[in-house]
Amino acid sequence: MEDLYSYIDGDFYLEQGRRIIPNINPATGDIISNINVPSTSCLDAAVDSAIVGQQIWK
Question: Are 38 and 6 in contact (CB under 8 A)?
Answer without folding.
Answer: yes
